[in-house]
């Protein structure tokens, strides 16, 4: 019979639901006590506001995929809610609002199993993204000006012709948690009327003649030019670029669920799942608090899953306002840098944002892949028996390299610098269903896993890049690997960018007889598009586009579209059948189109 969970109330440990005191030490004490019980536990908050400062939060040395790599400046992570080395844990907010301060990870599950985070909202008092709205713009006395409206949670100081943006001041050190000047290091632009967000240059601090603080979180900038700005009403979302902390972190854990949360902001990165098993993200509202005046809800991605096995289930969420991809699910290719013995290989992490944690465990199956063709080597699979490399918890060993011993001598075809390897054991089955994607400057979903993938019932609104992107990359991000069974069904693509569905592995030697990807079906979807390409696919064997509806955004009476709907490169077994096309689309590459003129191959 299942054990009855022990109930722990964080208020009993000193947490303050009035929001007047720092609740971080009390919450940490409650979680440490729960760990010591060694049995199922339910940790409860209550309705109210809980302030969580980083100075008394748990601290761990950790290395996190797609963040700051081996950079020792950021090795220590502050974690607001830490579930560590525990089994059968529920963290139930019961309607609580958690307000995080400074730079810290909101919550983490490390080396734990059967963990649920549910029923709370969380936000950051001073996000490391500054969303400024051009409240007014024009020309006065022959010179251009803008008036910027700044959200209340973004402190700043005007000095001379510059603005210094600040994190809030630490109550312990008396200094801001972070600072940056003018346009910071990265900008994207949000149009709240058109409900579209895109990456762009920042004109706010070019040709500046004068900057005046008007008080009330408003800044006037006067310029040395006379051309009136044309960006009234737009929002410039500005930030620095270092991803010091994951927004949330799941590592070496199993059966972890995020459910019924309001994730109003993720500080310096998104939710990272790393070498874990069975993850569920359900009914999470990844969107800014409408009362905050902000339009950004994540410093980068919302969900970044690197090296997951079992099942990934992402259902009925809202993804609104990230600074990178809402969902990215992938493995990691490590490059071969040495052959110390016939059964040993030395590997390196190649992208500077990823390093410091184990990529292989004894018993894992590994596949070796030729970088040029992205095709597996003959007899190129083996099982790991030992690993000498980073632990993910310290810097006692080199953080970017490792030596792995396998169960047998390996093929001579494994080349230093020309071969990469993927951990096959940590590849998940994926279901992404019933989600809404909007105000996204990048792609909607990136996924590369050889297990079954189902993308169904989602709505993609005005993506600024491909709505669905399938790569397999051994040259830039080193995000693995091939797909073998992908179904994209019953989704809505509204005002997309092109191509809407983009399959682009990084193989440089393209041979249709040696495809990278297999068996991709696009069925019964609706595309409301401008003059663009719907599918651009490279190196696929088996691509079926069936029963879909493609409509023009501007109606059939306007001039014909010229962009081909389909582009295929190095691909075979392309079937485009029984689709419904609006008038005046360019269906020359659609064999079933009313104006068919091509084979679609």
Describe this structure in words.
The chain is mainly beta. It has one helix and 49 strands. The strands form four sheets. The protein has a 33-stranded mixed sheet that branches. A seven-stranded antiparallel sheet has the order 16-15-19-10-11-18-17, with no helix packed on it. β12 and β13 (162-166) form a beta hairpin. The longest helix is centred in the first third of the chain and has 14 residues, at 24-37. It is globular. The model is unreliable at 595-601 (pLDDT under 50).
Rg is 25 Å
Helical coverage, percent range: under 10%
Shape: globular
What is the makeup of the main sheet?
33 strands, mixed
Overall residue-averaged pLDDT value: 96
Q: What's the number of extended β-strand segments?
A: 49
Low-confidence segments, given as residue ranges, are 595-601
Question: Into which percentage range does the β-strand content fall?
Answer: over 45%
- SSE class: mainly beta
Distance between the termini: 59 Å
Number of helices: 1
Summed up:
The chain is mainly beta. Strand 12 and strand 13 form a beta hairpin.
Question: What keyword list fits this structure?
Answer:
601 residues; 33-stranded mixed β-sheet; 49 strands; disordered C terminus
């Amino acid at each position: 019979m299942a054990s009855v969970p022990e109930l722990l109330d964080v208020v009993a440990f000193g947490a303050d639901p009035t929001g007047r005191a720092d609740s971080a030490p009390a919450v940490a004490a409650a979680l440490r006590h729960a760990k010591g019980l060694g049995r199922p536990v339910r940790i409860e908050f209550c309705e109210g506001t809980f302030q969580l400062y980083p100075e008394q939060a748990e601290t761990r040395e950790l290395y996190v995929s797609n963040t700051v790599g081996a950079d020792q400046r950021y090795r220590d992570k502050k974690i607001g809610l830490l579930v560590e080395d525990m089994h059968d844990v529920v963290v139930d907010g019961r309607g609580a609002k958690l307000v995080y301060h400074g730079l810290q990870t909101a919550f983490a599950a490390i080396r734990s199993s059967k963990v649920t985070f549910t029923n709370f909202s969380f936000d950051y008092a001073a996000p490391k993204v500054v969303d400024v709205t051009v409240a007014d713009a024009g020309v006065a006395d022959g010179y251009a000006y803008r008036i910027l409206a700044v959200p209340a949670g973004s402190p700043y100081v005007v000095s001379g012709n510059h603005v210094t943006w600040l994190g809030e001041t630490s109550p312990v050190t008396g200094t801001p948690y972070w600072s940056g000047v003018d346009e910071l290091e990265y900008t994207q632009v949000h149009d709240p009327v058109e409900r579209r967000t895109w990456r762009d240059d920042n004109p706010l601090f070019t040709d500046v003649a004068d900057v005046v603080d008007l008080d009330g979180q408003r800044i006037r900038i006067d310029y040395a030019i006379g051309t009136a700005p044309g960006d009234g009403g737009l929002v410039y979302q500005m930030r620095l670029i270092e991803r010091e902390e994951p927004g949330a972190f799941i590592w070496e854990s199993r059966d972890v669920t995020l459910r019924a949360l309001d994730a109003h902001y993720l500080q310096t990165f998104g939710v990272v799942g790393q070498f874990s098993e069975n993850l569920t993200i359900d009914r999470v509202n990844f969107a800014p608090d409408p009362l905050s005046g902000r339009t950004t809800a994540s410093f980068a991605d919302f969900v970044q899953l690197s090296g997951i096995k079992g099942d990934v289930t992402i259902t009925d969420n809202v993804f609104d306002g990230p600074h990178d991809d809402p969902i990215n699910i992938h493995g990691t290719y490590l490059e071969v840098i040495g052959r110390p013995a016939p059964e040993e290989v030395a590997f390196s992490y190649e992208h500077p944002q990823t390093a410091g944690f184990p990529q292989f465990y004894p018993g894992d199956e590994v596949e070796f892949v030729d970088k040029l063709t992205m095709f597996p080597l003959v007899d190129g699979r083996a099982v790991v028996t030992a690993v000498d490399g980073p632990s993910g918890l310290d810097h006692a060993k080199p953080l970017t390299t490792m030596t792995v011993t396998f169960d047998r001598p390996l093929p001579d075809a494994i080349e230093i610098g020309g071969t990469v390897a993927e951990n096959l054991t940590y590849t998940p089955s994926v279901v992404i269903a019933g989600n809404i994607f909007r105000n996204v400057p990048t792609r909607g979903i990136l996924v590369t896993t050889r297990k079954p993938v189902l993308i169904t019932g989602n709505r993609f609104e005005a993506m600024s890049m491909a709505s669905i992107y399938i790569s397999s990359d051994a040259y830039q991000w080193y995000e693995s690997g091939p797909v073998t069974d992908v179904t994209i069904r019953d989704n809505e693509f509204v005002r997309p960018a092109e191509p809407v569905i983009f399959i682009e592995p990084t193989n440089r030697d393209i041979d249709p007889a040696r495809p990278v990807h297999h068996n991709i079906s696009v069925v019964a979807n609706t595309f409301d598009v401008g003059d663009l390409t719907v599918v651009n696919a490279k190196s696929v064997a088996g691509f079926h586009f069936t029963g879909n509806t493609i409509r023009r955004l501007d109606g059939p009476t306007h001039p014909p579209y010229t962009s081909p709907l389909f582009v295929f490169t190095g691909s075979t077994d392309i079937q485009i059948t029984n689709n419904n096309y609006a008038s005046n689309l360019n269906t020359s590459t659609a064999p079933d189109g009313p104006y068919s003129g091509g084979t679609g191959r």
